[in-house]
Amino acid sequence: MNLFHLFDRSEERLAANDADFNERTATVEAILKSVGALPFRRANLNRGLHKLVAASIVVAHEADDSIDIVTRRAGTLVEAGRSTKIIEYLDKAVAAGLLQSQSRRAEGRLRVSGTISSYLS
């Protein structure tokens, strides 16, 4: 699923205040922080962005779909109203083995790894 479309769906799900979805998102966010994919410093400032990244992984897992990185270009992310840190966070998740990629960084199709899947099942 296209990264921008995935973020839109994730925002909708977060706005719905579904307790089960929010709990699963919090679990993924904690996993991402524990491996260093999301920074724990200044977490209050970036809480919304961290939650959105975690929620997008949950939505992709629920849909049994990939996270399609259509661009790594910072300008395109800014034009779409997204943070340029998103790609950095996804790169770190790939490096930690939480997301599977064809390369060593977040590009192309990313799949949710077994580690996260086991917590979400």
Please give a structural write-up.
The model has no long low-confidence stretch (mean pLDDT 92). A three-stranded antiparallel sheet has the order 1-3-2. α2 packs across α3. The radius of gyration is 13 Å and the shape is globular. The longest helix has 16 residues. The two termini are 20 Å apart. β2 and β3 form a beta hairpin. The chain is mainly α.
Topology, please?
Blueprint: H1 3-15, H2 19-34, H3 47-62, E1 67-69, H4 74-79, H5 85-95, E2 99-100, E3 108-112, H6 114-120
Antiparallel strand pairs: 1-3, 2-3
Helix pairs in contact: 1-3, 2-3
How would a crystallographer describe the biggest sheet? 3 strands, antiparallel
Give the neighbour order of strands across the main sheet. Answer: 1-3-2
Shape, principal axes of CA atoms:
globular
Helix fraction bin = 55-70%
What's the average pLDDT?
A: 92
| Helical segment count | 6
Oligomer: single chain
Q: Count all strands and give the number.
A: 3
From the alpha carbons, calculate the radius of gyration and give it in angstroms: 13 Å
Straight-line N-to-C gap: 20 Å
Strand content: 5-15%
Order of SSEs: HHHEHHEEH
The secondary-structure class comes to: mainly alpha
TL;DR of this structure?
The chain has 6 helices and 3 strands, in the order H-H-H-E-H-H-E-E-H.
Notable features of this structure?
single chain, 121 residues, mainly alpha, 3-stranded antiparallel beta sheet, 6 helices, globular
